[in-house]
Write a structure and sequence with these properties.
The protein has 568 residues and is of the alpha/beta class. Helices cover 31% and strands 25% of the residues. The strands form nine sheets. Strands 19, 20, 22, 23 and 24 form a five-stranded antiparallel β-sheet that branches. Strands 2-1-10-9 form a four-stranded mixed β-sheet, with helices on both faces. A four-stranded parallel β-sheet has the order 4-3-5-6, with helices on both faces. Helix 2 packs across helix 3.
């Protein structure tokens, strides 16, 4: 039974018992260290500054979630006085600033935020937002010589308003209570046996649930010593992540599949003198589909630096369940289930096959439900599925959200009879979960269910197709039948070479999957829509395709390639 009434009580206890507190990279060679006592003192000052701006328990405080010491302290200061943080993504360089303002205004209005906390260097992006709520630089929040009173928040009070990434729809505000956040955190801690001896390192964005709840909130509650890198530092110099692990002897880290693909590629290219990854015991892999080939490559490349094959740790979770849903046993090498791709598509059964069998597909186990959670699979007709039968993943338990913020229609659609309907499709085998994709993304061709991930994976084997940047979706033709389309980024220029890659992709998908594509299109690198956390936005890509607004390099259709070369 959890003894804490609210998240601040758990955070205070965790920080007080941490060995070293937190460190935050503010540059490649500059790190700010806040030991436990100093960290608690700073939290009091930030909390007092938030109170001074008129924030009372239960008020929403939007935070432009850049990974800086002042922003981390703003989140903690908000919880310190019983406020409800609303993490917001940062403006991205590739996105029109007007779109950033539009999306931010939507979330400020929907959440009813009374205060917007912004890193001082980003104040210029938010000048037009002052009419919506009071805007303050995070660095200006601290109020000295004043200690706020302890917040009187109860377990059922709202603790966090976490907006979904918007990978399959418009972002929605997930309403999390103190009870659900504490339940999820302590389930994680119990399952992977976190202790004050652990050191955690993360570059994950604070506006994403894995970054904020997993590697910030839970890490602090677990009494660990934690190291944080801004995501932009990881993007500009990915090996800094590994150097931080080596330097601080970190034991736990995590990231999405694309990050591990990038790291594996870098480690394969050259030997990094002095790098030591032997301290790692778990490296969580979540937030997007996990590629077995990437995990294999990572293990092989990182083994030269002391990382064991048991370190990669595939997990499943979603914001609507606070964060974590299933974890495998820690210390076990990742488990692979080889199944018949034909049976997945035609009968909805995950039939085990030999890995060398034609049409076999590897799926990685994401483990079993965490303590306090239950996972079942539901058929399309509403009945519960049997062992190895595909259906919608449903979750029930203490860490499931209260609902979507002020959206009763969508809440009732997602929470039914006490079960969270995730929209993800998968199956259970021997109590462990395997995911095949998103139900909304499914493409039905000739009565068969085609997973877009299978098309994307097949296409990405062709040189010239940018790995991790292919998007498949279905379009309806004039006869009312659905046909698959593949759009992929490429670094190639318009011409014969790009056109040959298109032909190779078409041939490969027919040979491997037995289905023709309506169209294969190569587009300019960096032009496909993704969420703020880097997930593919299939619905947005489909709309760009329908409107003819993609920056085309080459295509299998007869349409004319116009503007991509001019924009390259």
């Amino acid at each position: 039974m959890i003894k804490h009434q609210n998240v601040w009580q758990a955070l205070k206890e965790g920080i007080s018992n941490s060995q070293e507190g937190i460190r935050v990279f503010v540059g490649e060679d500059q790190v700010v260290h806040l030991p436990p006592h100093a960290l608690l003192k700073e939290i009091d000052e930030y909390g007092a500054g938030i109170e001074e701006r008129g924030i009372e328990p239960g008020d929403r405080v939007a935070v432009l979630a850049q990974t800086t010491p002042s922003v981390l302290l703003s989140f903690l200061g908000c919880w310190r006085v019983g406020g409800v943080p609303v993490p917001l993504p940062l403006p991205l360089r590739a996105v029109d600033p007007r779109f950033f303002i539009q999306q931010t205004v939507k979330k400020l209005s929907a959440s009813g935020a009374r205060l917007l906390v912004v890193p001082r260097e980003l104040l210029s992006f938010t000048r037009n937002l002052e009419a919506k709520c009071f805007v303050v630089a995070a660095e200006d929040l601290p109020k000295r010589a004043q200690t706020p009173k302890e917040p009187a928040c109860c377990p059922e009070d709202v603790a966090l308003l976490q907006y979904t990434s918007g990978s399959t729809s418009e972002p929605r505000g997930v309403t999390l209570t103190h009870r659900s956040m504490l339940a999820n955190a302590f389930s994680i801690i119990e399952t992977i046996k976190v202790t004050p001896e652990d050191r955690v390192v993360s570059w994950l964005p604070l506006y994403h649930d894995m970054g904020l709840i997993g590697f910030f909130f839970t890490a602090l509650v677990a009494k660990t010593s934690s190291i944080y890198l801004p995501p932009q530092l990881f993007v500009s110099r990915p090996l800094l992540w590994l150097e931080a692990i080596s330097r601080y002897r970190c034991t736990i880290t995590g990231g999405p599949n694309f990050a591990y693909a990038l790291i594996a590629r870098l480690l394969e290219k050259e030997y990094i003198q002095g790098l030591d990854l032997s301290s790692l015991r778990l490296s969580l892999n979540g937030a997007e589909p996990i590629d077995m080939e990437v995990v294999d490559r990572l293990v092989k490349a990182a083994s030269r630096y002391g990382m064991s094959a048991e370190v990669p740790y595939p997990v499943y979770g979603l914001a609507e369940a606070t964060l974590a849903v299933t974890f495998p046993p820690p210390g076990r090498k990742f488990k692979v289930d080889w199944v018949s791709q034909y049976h997945l598509h035609s009968t909805g059964e995950a039939l085990p096959v030999d890995p060398h069998c034609p049409g076999s597909r590897p799926l990685i186990s994401l483990g079993s439900a965490l303590p306090g959670l239950e996972v079942r699979i539901k058929r399309a007709d509403g009945s519960w599925a049997q062992e190895r039968e595909l259906g919608e993943i449903c979750v029930r338990g203490a860490s499931v959200m209260r609902g979507y913020w002020k959206d009763p229609v969508q809440t009732n659609e997602t929470l039914r009879d006490g079960w969270l309907h995730t929209g993800d499709q998968g199956y259970l085998s021997e109590g462990e979960l395997y995911i095949t994709g998103r139900i909304k993304d499914m493409i039905i061709v000739g009565g068969k269910n085609i997973f877009p991930e299978d098309i994307e994976r097949c296409a990405e084997k062709i040189p010239g197709v940018r790995k991790g940047n292919a998007i498949a979706f279905g379009v309806t033709n004039r006869r009312g039948k659905e046909r698959p389309v593949l759009v992929s980024e490429t670094h190639l220029q318009p011409g014969d070479q790009a056109q040959e890659v298109v032909k190779e992709v078409c041939r490969a998908i027919v040979q491997e999957m037995g289905i023709p594509l309506h169209e294969v299109m190569l587009v300019k690198a960096g032009s496909l829509p993704k969420t703020s956390s880097g997930k593919k936005q299939r619905y947005a890509c489909r709309e760009l395709y329908r409107r003819g607004e993609l920056q085309v390099i080459a295509t299998s259709a007869s349409r004319e390639v116009k503007s991509a070369s001019a924009n390259t």
